[in-house]
Amino acid sequence: MDAIPPGASSKPNYAVENSELIVAGTNVQARLILLAPGQIIPWHYHSEITDHYFVLRGALKIETMNPKFTRTLVVGERHQLTPGTAHSLSNRISVDCQFLLLQGVGRYDWIKVESEA
After folding, report:
1. Is 2 inside a domain boundary?
2. Distance CA 107, CA 21 (A)
3. 43, 65 in Cβ contact below 8 A?
4. Is 73 in contact with 57 (CB distance < 8 Å)?
5. In the chain, how long is the greatest CA-to-CA distance?
6. Residue 13 · residue 111 · CB < 8 Å
7. Neighbours of 85 (CB within 10 A)
8. Res. 116 pLDDT band, cuts 50 70 90
9. CATH number, domain at 14?
10. Which whole-number Å values give the CA distances from 10 to 81, 84, 109, 111, in the listed order?
């Protein structure tokens, strides 16, 4: 079994309105996630997997640290984040945000990062 990097977890410690696992394999997974207004997925990164976001309802704010980047995706837009990119996701509008998250290919981990605030 591979060692988990310091700060890594296979079970993130944050709350979202809903998260439905669609499919999970040994090196890929898909989730349908619902963020209520004001909900945030805190700063983190993945050591091996790429995140692919597809917005289905509302708007999803994506922020990265290095490089410093902010983008708000709306319905029909998509974005990807490569391994090692520290990022935070949030719903900053007054309606729910629903998005499809595809992750892979690689071993899943969730490594917490302190914000730059």
Report:
1. no
2. 16
3. yes
4. no
5. 44
6. no
7. 17
8. low
9. 2.60.120.10
10. 18, 16, 5, 9
**Sheet strands (E) in 1-117:** 8-9, 18-24, 28-35, 40-45, 50-57, 59-64, 69-74, 78-81, 87-90, 97-104, 110-112
Report if residue 117 sits inside a domain. no
Q: Residue 43 is encoded by which pair of tokens?
A: 């700063």
Q: How far is CA 9 from CA 44, 69, 75, 98, 105, in A?
A: 10, 25, 30, 24, 18
Residue with tokens 């309105």: 17
Number of domain units in the chain:
1
Return left, alpha or beta for 27; rule: phi > 0 is left, psi -120 to 50 is alpha, else beta. Answer: alpha
> In this predicted model, what pLDDT tens digit does every residue of 29-74 receive, in sequence order?
999 999 999 999 999 999 999 999 999 999 999 999 988 999 999 9
